[in-house]
């Protein structure tokens, strides 16, 4: 992975290299407009595309988007189907934009539980973008941190290995990637909901009351500004 260069960004040097986004509130946003939840997911997806562009423009290098948790698969079938429809659209159309911006796309999560065509599309984009070393978009899809940790433990056990903090981290879906500097959650809740539990050990957390489809570029800038003013001590004085 290329060395981070935040020189050109407005908040020079204080821009988080890696931002995690828990995009929550799509359903409530739609409900408040008397629209179906699936409309909220569509608008959330569109907002996410715009936000990724903006995040790269201001100097963020890695964005990890929580798109579907392992628990979300237990939602009513029509909602899960609507989400699958959006992922098809995403990998079919929008993922092109990511490649045009010379960024790498990675999927974090258990893809085996997803429909084969979505898996195939995602793997294709992953392979096509694997040559880009600068910017990166991680999409957490059927992702759960507890799943991820248990999977890593089982991998180590099957290899008969004792792990270190470093070797264990390399067995996670995020293996080889930097930990998130900042995690933003929209949608008013103050919790991580099984997102990056191991990697978030020293991440700064930022909670927004805005529902994700309404979370603007300016709202993102406000999160970055808040982050820039924080004193990250990592347990030191
Ligand atoms: C987040 O929005 C997107 C997914 C979980 C897929 P929600 O669907 O959780 O929206 P709310 O929280 O019900 O408003
Ligand atoms: C977290 O949101 C998962 C995603 C944003 C994909 P949820 O809406 O599933 O989380 P809870 O149920 O409020 O904890
Ligand atoms: Mg929610």
Short précis:
With 237 residues, the protein is α/β, with parallel strands linked by helices. It has helices at residues 26-31, 37-57, 77-100, 116-129, 145-158, 165-170, 217-228, and strands at 18-22, 62-69, 103-108, 135-143, 182-185, 204-207. The protein has a 6-stranded parallel β-sheet with strand order 3-4-2-1-5-6, with helices on both faces.
Notable traits:
6 strands; Undecaprenyl pyrophosphate synthetase; binds 3-methylbut-3-enyl trihydrogen diphosphate; binds magnesium ion; six-stranded parallel β-sheet; alpha/beta
Question: Could you please describe the fold and organization of this structure?
Answer:
The chain has 237 residues and is α/β, with parallel strands linked by helices. It has one domain (19-225): 3-Layer(aba) Sandwich (Undecaprenyl pyrophosphate synthetase). Helix content is 41%, strand content 15%. The chain has seven helices and six strands. It has helices spanning 26-31, 37-57, 77-100, 116-129, 145-158, 165-170, 217-228; strands spanning 18-22, 62-69, 103-108, 135-143, 182-185, 204-207. Strands 3-4-2-1-5-6 form a six-stranded parallel sheet, with helices on both faces. β3 (103-108), α4 and β4 form a beta-alpha-beta unit. α2 runs parallel beside α3 (77-100) and α3 runs parallel beside α4. The model is unreliable at 1-11 (pLDDT under 50). One 3-methylbut-3-enyl trihydrogen diphosphate binds next to β2.
């Amino acid at each position: 992975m290329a060395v981070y260069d935040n020189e050109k960004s407005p908040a020079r040097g204080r821009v988080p290299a890696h931002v995690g986004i828990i995009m929550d509130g799509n359903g409530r946003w739609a409900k408040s407009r008397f629209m179906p939840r699936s409309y909220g997911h569509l608008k959330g997806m569109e907002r996410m595309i715009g936000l990724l562009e903006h995040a790269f423009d201001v100097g963020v290098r890695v964005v990890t988007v929580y798109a579907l948790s392992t628990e979300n698969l237990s939602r009513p079938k029509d909602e899960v189907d609507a989400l699958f429809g959006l992922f098809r659209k995403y990998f079919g159309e929008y993922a092109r934009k990511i490649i045009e911006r010379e960024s790498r796309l990675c999927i974090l999560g258990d893809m085996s539980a997803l429909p084969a065509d979505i898996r195939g599309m995602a793997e294709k984009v992953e392979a096509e973008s694997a040559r880009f070393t600068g910017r990166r978009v991680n999409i957490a899809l059927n992702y759960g941190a507890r799943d991820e940790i248990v999977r890593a433990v089982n991998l180590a056990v099957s290899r008969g290995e004792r792990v270190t903090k470093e070797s264990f981290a390399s067995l996670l879906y995020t293996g080889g990637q930097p930990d998130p500097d900042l995690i933003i959650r929209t949608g008013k809740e103050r919790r991580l909901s099984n997102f990056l539990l191991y990697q978030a050990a020293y991440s700064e957390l930022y909670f927004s009351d805005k529902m994700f489809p309404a979370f603007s570029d300016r709202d993102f800038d406000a999160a970055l500004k808040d982050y820039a003013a924080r004193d990250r001590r990592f347990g030191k004085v």
